[in-house]
Amino acid sequence: MRRFFAIVALLALAGSAFAEIKLQQVDRKINLNSQFARISEAVKAKNVGDKPVSEVVFCQLLNADAVVSLYKVVNADSKAELTVTPTIVEGAPAGAACFSAKLASPLAAGDTASLTVSAVLAKAQVPHPKEISQVDSQLMRYKDNLYVLSPYAVSAQTTEVTTPTSTVKSYTDSEKPVSKSDNKIKYGKYDLIKPWTLQELSVHFENNKPFKHILTYVKEIEVSHWGNIYVEERYEIKNAGAAHSGSFSRLKYAHSYNGKANSFRDLRAVLPPSARSLYYVDLIGNISSSNTRKTVQSTIVDIDLRYPLMGGWKVDFMLGYSVPLTGFLSHTKGGRRKLTMDLASPLEDVFVEDMVVRVVLPEGSTNLKAVLPYDMDQSTDVKFTYLDTTGRPVLVLHRANVASPEHSAKFSVEYSFGAVSILREPLLLISVFFCLFAAVIAYNRLEFTITRDDKWAAARDKEVLATYMEQIAAALEDEASLMAGFEAATRAVRDAEDVDAAQRKRAAVEKGCRDLEDKVKPLLAAVESRSARVAGQVREVLERAKALQARHAKQLSDRIDLVKKGSTMGEVSRKLAPGQDALDAARRDLKNAIETVFGAY
Amino acid sequence: MSSEAHYQSGASLVETVRRYLTKTKSQELLIRSTTLISIYLLAFCIRLFSVLRYESVIHEFDPYFNYRSTIKLVTEGFYEFWNWFDAESWHPLGRVVGGTVYPGLMWTAAILYKVSNFLTACIKLRDICVFTAPFFAGNTAMVAYLFGKELKDTETGLVAAALMAIVPGYISRSVAGSFDNEAVAIFALTTTFYLWVCAVNRGTIASGVFAAFAYLYMAASWGAYVFISNLIPLYVIIMAVIGRYSRRLYVAYTTFWVVGGILAMQIRFIGFNHVLSNELLSWNAIFVALQVWELIVFLRAKLGDRKFGQLAYLLALGVVGTGAAAVVILIASGKLNPWTGRFWTLLDPTYAKKFIPIVASVSEHQPTTWASYIFDLHVLVFAAPAGLYFCFKKLTDGTIFLTVFALTAIYFSGIMVRLMLVAAPAFVLLSAISISATLASASRELRLHAAATEAAKSAPAAEAAAAAAPKKRAASKRAAAGSDEEPLPSRPAANWAVLGLTALAMMSYAGHCIWVTSEAYSSPSIVLISGWGPHRHVLDDFREAYYWLRHNTKPDAKIMSWWDYGYQITAMGNRTVIVDNNTWNNTHIATVGRAMASNETEAFKIMRQLDVDYALVIFGGMSGYSSDDINKFLWMVRIGGGVYPDHIKESNYLNNGDYTVSDRGTPTMLNSLMYKLSYYDFGNIMTEHNKGTGYDRVRGYEIGNKDVSLEHLDEAFTSEHWIVRIYKVKDLENRF
């Protein structure tokens, strides 16, 4: 229905509707002091019809390749921005781009509205001559309509053109009054101009400002919930000024005051203050010429291109950095997450012909929704990168003809993300490593031999022998700890009352030793069946162990005897010292023997 | 077995772990594996100086071609690469890259790339290429460990791995970014030798086949595979001569010959050369000889001595006759041409210098000086001969192979600096044997001494048994070590001194290796850095100019430069070049040399004929960069004069035997294209304080002709420090 009404409204406009509005006063300013043409018009529109009017149409004449990068209409009183939509108007001359601005409240009959129109045109300045040499200065030509192009009748209007310098080769001066002072050319005031009146305005002037055109700009924002947002920007940049012709002399470039012509080499990027891990590279590696400064509000990167760009020269590069999540990623009330970032290029004073912004969200993000400051084409994609299984959802935003700084703005993307999804990648890693270790364990435990020949049997025997030996060694260690208990018990005997406890301990230890012996016996037999030599060695060790046990027993009984006799502690120690020395020697001996026999297994 | 009671210790988990860790065997395993892992990391990390100091970038010249080929392989697939005809180089001839390249390195990098991406590691292809060499250096150290273990024992293996990890002779070609054939080829070489020694020791077909596959990798990677296929027959001959020929050797060689030969022939660049080339004559001849010998042994066993004698006489006549006839026929039909330049170069080190200027012009083809032995091997130069002593002391099949390998490698390394690379593993293994043997004997003496002292201490005690055991053990150990001599009275001080000296030598070796790596071998040469700290200044002129070519010339523009820069221009500038580092066509290179050496008008004709759009020269007079084209001009004149003696005469460029571009320079020199392109616009510049204008900072004098004007060329681009200068060749004047 709305569309129907719009068409009806259009038809109505096309008929006689334009007669309802009269522009009482238009003051137009055309600023050519950069690579853009920045036009602002202060308009007083009066409804001279008898019905309220809700839309006002503005038009701009475009020459050659010029494009409208931005078109904005603001109510001068309330400072409120009006909704602007491109529209086609019948009767408009070729090359005119028209926009209809919807007023906040319909303009009643007889009322007047003050509106401010601002437009940014790119490629509107055309180099003339098209090619210049290294020492020439760059001349541009700008063409427009001398009168404000409008479907409405204009009662009074003035135009002021500002050029970068006072050097103006020529300008249209057919319609008086015209005046030029310094770098300003003033036209008007002109009275009572009919709708669609065409009259060429042409200014030919010097403009040595760099024409920094970014042919393609791709920005990829990759969010990791583990604490980082990675931003990588790819640029293909061209000097769109007058093309360089003839030779390029490094001597002139470096040493002549005018040897640089319209070239530029430096760019400035303004990044968030928390930006870190910056890199500035191209296809063949680092570009070793950039500088970074940190201020409170921003990180400023002064970039030098690989080589100076003379007119028509191109180069490409990549700029990357990381920012922390804080300040960029937040939770919304609905439990969703919201990423807020800069939308356009951080470079100052550039024109971007084609901008693509890719927002890569973590795996498992759903329901992506973008909140944009201006219209962009949206689509989705999937990206596979580190440890991805299903791929990360990508929101792709696209827009042509972006001007800096007018289009610098924030945008946000809202999405849902389950808390468990963050564990996806660690779990994946854990399970992979688990499987790996499990496979190694399985490989070690299983046998993959195809033929069971003598070699296999020998190896197998050796393995089995090793397990028995290991177990015997373990038993011997257990025995050693029992012996340590024995010794502690011996030391604890200080007077007659301790004797009983010591005897009990002795019985327990001896029982333990007997148990161990029982356990070792079948193992020894098994060893015997495989290698008599090794069994002999083991037996020797066991005998030593037994001897040690006997020594311990003797030491204890000697001590008990002495204590019972009532000797002093000093006396006891002295008397038992030789026995203790022998005991220590025997223990060391046993330890050596165990190492020799069992060390290899 | 179930009837046997299985004893299980009742110890807790902590106790089990403690027990496990205190066991000598597991301690040894732990120490050994930790050491090996550290060595691996060390081998990798020591090669990263260039990445830390500069960036992750491909170095030098040849690696750029390999990088470009790898990109081709990864993006367009195996078959496209296999059949690759590169029209971007050697214009207008082109180059059949698929058939003239050793593809092992590219395969390796492509596989690493695919695998890491499959595992979602997403490493960039450039980083894969940059880190291939350090990665393989780690692998080589591990192979050195296995090799040392096979030759002698585990300790030798560990020492070999440690020495191999940081030997400068190998680091020189394997720092991060040095993406060259040698990076993987040294790994392939040591692996082949290791598996070959295994094959000889085991004498099984399977081990021979393993060695053959390692040989395939080597043949796919580097032209020095010929070294292997000559060394192994030489080893077989030596084994036969000293009477150690065995059935194991026969099985190993025969398997290796059959499987390895067939596999190597699959590489397009090698193909039937593997059978026909005289470089591999010994490889094939020894195979035939072995078969004949085995046949003789077989017949002798079957026929008995008398009949066999008659047969042998007839056979000998027949073999000599047919052999002579075969050689004559082969030489006559051109299949066998023994006297190529390459052959002579290996026998006579000065041959190339005299007769092949293009070979002599490459600095890495110069004969090696003594200083570079010390520089590249340091203490190994002294330790290796000691290793030879230990090898001879206890001869095994393995140590004989090592000896043969080492002696030939040392000979070849004396011919060309580049072959130092092959000698490095030999030096490492020999040194490992001597160092580990020294350390082992010294520490064994010390241990015995300690045991004896302990025994002596406990001897006075009542128990004599306690003393008896260590002595007996010591005696048995000594017997096991195989020394028949009476044990010398052990002097701990001397042994400590030996250990200390060895440690000192090892420390100074390590220090030297680190120093050499950081100072000499870690510069990518594509980026130059001068000064330190705040005065650090980066000269990035090469990439600046190549990138300019990439973006601001027609996509089909042809660039003429001296061949050194061909690979870099095609890889970084993505433009067609006339000649590049492949140097397969000497005439084409000579034509470029002639153009550079001619006057502008003459050069313009040649450049028109070659379709040249831009001429590129490297010029150091402004920045002091000394390996520039004026310094290489000598070779352009010589190579050009070698093919076009009527047009280019070296004497025209010499003033009293002196190449100079000062005012003493000859008119031919000062009018040559090279002079003009280098010094255009240079005559009026003050380069150094207190010097006149046009002062060349490399040559150290003012140039002869300061007023250079160009008629047929136009300066198109000059980099910031004037190192790269590019000129556009003008079209012909309009003729009305």
UniProtKB/TrEMBL annotation, chain A:
Gene Ontology biological process terms in this record: protein N-linked glycosylation via asparagine
Metabolic or biological pathway: Protein modification; protein glycosylation
UniProt xrefs under Pfam families: Ribophorin_I
Top-level taxon in the UniProt lineage: Eukaryota
Membrane topology: Single-pass type I membrane protein
Signal peptide: 1-19
Transmembrane segments annotated in the record for this chain: 427-446
Coarse class of the protein's main subcellular location: endoplasmic reticulum
Keyword terms, alphabetized: Endoplasmic reticulum, Membrane, Signal, Transmembrane, Transmembrane helix
UniProt-listed InterPro entries: Ribophorin_I
Keyword Membrane part of the UniProt annotation: yes
Record flagged with keyword Flavoprotein: no
Family: Belongs to the OST1 family.
SUBUNIT field: Component of the oligosaccharyltransferase (OST) complex.
Reported function: Subunit of the oligosaccharyl transferase (OST) complex that catalyzes the initial transfer of a defined glycan (Glc(3)Man(9)GlcNAc(2) in eukaryotes) from the lipid carrier dolichol-pyrophosphate to an asparagine residue within an Asn-X-Ser/Thr consensus motif in nascent polypeptide chains, the first step in protein N-glycosylation. N-glycosylation occurs cotranslationally and the complex associates with the Sec61 complex at the channel-forming translocon complex that mediates protein translocation across the endoplasmic reticulum (ER). All subunits are required for a maximal enzyme activity.
Name the record gives this protein: Dolichyl-diphosphooligosaccharide--protein glycosyltransferase subunit 1
Organism: Chlamydomonas incerta
UniProtKB/TrEMBL annotation, chain B:
Cofactor(s) needed for function: Mg(2+); Mn(2+)
Transmembrane domains' residue ranges: 29-49, 96-116, 128-148, 154-171, 183-216, 222-242, 249-269, 281-299, 311-332, 370-392, 399-417
UniProt protein name: dolichyl-diphosphooligosaccharide--protein glycotransferase
Family, similarity comment: Belongs to the STT3 family.
Location relative to the cell: Endomembrane system
Domain Oligosaccharyl transferase STT3 N-terminal: start-end pairs: 36-430
Annotated metabolic or biological route of this protein: Protein modification; protein glycosylation
Keywords noted in UniProt: Glycosyltransferase, Magnesium, Manganese, Membrane, Metal-binding, Transferase, Transmembrane, Transmembrane helix
EC class: transferase
Documented EC number(s): 2.4.99.18
InterPro entries noted in UniProt: Oligo_trans_STT3, STT3-PglB_core, STT3_N
GO terms for cellular component: endomembrane system; membrane
Organism of provenance: Chlamydomonas incerta
Catalytic function, reaction form: a di-trans,poly-cis-dolichyl diphosphooligosaccharide + L-asparaginyl-[protein] = N(4)-(oligosaccharide-(1->4)-N-acetyl-beta-D-glucosaminyl-(1->4)-N-acetyl-beta-D-glucosaminyl)-L-asparaginyl-[protein] + a di-trans,poly-cis-dolichyl diphosphate + H(+)
Bilayer topology term: Multi-pass membrane protein
Database matches in Pfam families: STT3 (PF02516), STT3-PglB_core (PF21436)
GO molecular function list: dolichyl-diphosphooligosaccharide-protein glycotransferase activity; metal ion binding
STT3/PglB/AglB core domain mapped to chain residues: 559-615
Lineage: Eukaryota, Viridiplantae, Chlorophyta, core chlorophytes, Chlorophyceae
